């Protein structure tokens, strides 16, 4: 495939956009990880101070009340979800958990208490804490040991998931930015192509008119002689007029009218095969009556592009077949253009319709892309129906039929 400069620049732009996104993501993750570690260390220290203050309250019951009040104040100022258990695993104390629940049996509570007896809740919280952090051990004067478990505060938990939320927002922003920039780029390219096309049509107008005049002069000069060559020249000049008219209509929505498809295809095939190698034969088959809404000049261009591609795919002798059929039930018309050329790998069946894709050394890779757009203007679709390497390819155009199928009433 030939790689054109604008496709290379587009790929380069995508690479830098991806690199920019990766740098933002990496910086965000590293910085957030640093904050998480710092906050986690701070909460560990807070948990240790809370455990020490609890140990002091339990181990020094006879200390001055004012000092005990100070220790209580220090402990209560350290807000952190925590549970204290015996070595056996029995829960002794908890804090900053659901204030409406308790693991103390109602028989030992005040009958007026609104607390809900819910031991599974505390077991679940304890299991979560055991997974979060290693316990802090408290040694009492009587030789008993308690274990303090805790889990991250709400702020730290939210900070852990923040980078993923941030990365999601960055991804959404980049997708939107890419879509907008791509749209602007495509719009600018389309404006350039439209301007060039209209200018080409304008430039072709004068020499075409001059050639028509010279043909009329040649006919008058050689009146009465065999004018078959002049007839073919006139067909070519009229063809140039059609091409100029096509280019002048690029960028505008074509007007559609009801046409017999077989007649339009037949006219172009008859014109085209005379100007193609005699080693390539043409065959037109199928329904000769089906009608669809078309713009003759634009649809003619579609057939031209597909036939030229078919001829280019044939190396040496070959055959091109155009078959027109109708699916009455779906109210659709199928136009199948088949060749006996080199075929297309299945992996490229979609790629060939992208701008810039070509297997030829000479060519811009715009033929099939433009063809797909023109088929779209006819409210139809085009795709590779089948293809086999070394045996050929069949393109199918699907158009809406003018015929409306009405099922028979029983």
Automatic annotation (TrEMBL):
Pfam families given in the database record: HATPase_c
Top-level taxon: Bacteria
Membrane spanning stretches: 15-36, 161-181
Family annotation (PANTHER family): SENSOR PROTEIN CREC (PTHR44936), SENSOR PROTEIN RSTB (PTHR44936:SF10)
Alphabetized SUPFAM superfamilies for the sequence: ATPase domain of HSP90 chaperone/DNA topoisomerase II/histidine kinase
Enzyme nomenclature, EC number: 2.7.13.3
Name of the protein this chain belongs to: histidine kinase
Domain called Histidine kinase: residue spans: 199-403
Class of enzymatic activity (EC top level): transferase
InterPro entries attached to this UniProt entry: 2C_sensor_his_kinase, HATPase_C_sf, HATPase_dom, His_kinase_dom, HisK_dim/P_dom, Sig_transdc_His_kin-like_C
Gene Ontology MF terms: kinase activity
Key words of the record: ATP-binding, Kinase, Membrane, Nucleotide-binding, Phosphoprotein, Transferase, Transmembrane, Transmembrane helix
Catalytic activity: ATP + protein L-histidine = ADP + protein N-phospho-L-histidine
SMART domains, A to Z: HATPase_c
């Amino acid at each position: 495939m030939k790689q054109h400069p604008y496709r290379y620049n587009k790929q380069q732009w995508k690479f830098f956009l991806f690199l920019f996104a990766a740098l933002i993501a990496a910086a965000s993750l590293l910085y957030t990880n640093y904050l998480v570690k710092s906050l986690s260390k701070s909460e560990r220290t807070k948990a240790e101070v809370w455990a020490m203050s609890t140990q002091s309250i339990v181990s020094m019951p006879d200390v001055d009340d004012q000092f005990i009040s100070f220790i209580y104040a220090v402990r209560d100022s350290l807000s952190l979800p925590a549970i204290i258990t015996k070595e056996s695993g029995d829960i002794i104390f908890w804090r900053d958990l659901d204030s409406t629940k308790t693991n103390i049996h109602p028989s030992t509570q005040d009958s007026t208490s609104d607390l809900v007896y819910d031991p599974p809740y505390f077991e679940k919280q304890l299991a979560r804490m055991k997974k979060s952090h290693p316990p802090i051990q408290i040694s009492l004067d009587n030789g008993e040991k308690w274990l303090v478990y805790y889990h991250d505060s709400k702020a730290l938990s939210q900070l852990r998931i923040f980078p993923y939320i941030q990365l999601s927002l960055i991804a959404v922003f980049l997708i939107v930015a890419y879509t907008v920039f791509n749209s602007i780029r495509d719009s600018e390219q389309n404006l350039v192509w439209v301007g060039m096309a209209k200018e080409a049509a304008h430039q072709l107008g004068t020499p075409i008119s001059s050639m028509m005049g010279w043909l009329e002069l040649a006919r008058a000069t050689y009146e009465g002689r065999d004018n078959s060559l002049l007839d073919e020249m006139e067909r070519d000049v009229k063809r140039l007029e059609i091409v100029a008219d096509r280019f002048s209509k690029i960028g505008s929505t074509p007007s559609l009218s009801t046409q017999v498809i077989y007649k339009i295809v037949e006219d172009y095939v008859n014109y085209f095969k005379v100007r193609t190698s005699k080693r390539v034969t043409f065959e037109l088959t199928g329904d000769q009556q089906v009608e669809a809404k078309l713009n003759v000049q634009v649809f003619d261009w579609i057939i031209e592009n597909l036939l030229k591609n078919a001829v280019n795919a044939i190396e040496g002798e070959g055959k091109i077949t155009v078959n027109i059929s109708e699916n009455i039930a779906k109210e659709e018309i199928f136009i199948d253009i088949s060749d006996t050329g080199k075929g297309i790998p299945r992996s490229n069946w979609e790629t060939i319709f992208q701008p810039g894709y070509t297997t030829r050394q000479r060519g811009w890779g715009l033929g099939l892309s433009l063809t797909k757009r023109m088929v779209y203007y006819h409210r139809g679709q085009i795709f590779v129906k089948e293809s086999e390497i070394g045996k050929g390819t069949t393109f199918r155009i699907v158009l809406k039929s003018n015929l409306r199928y009405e099922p028979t009433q029983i």
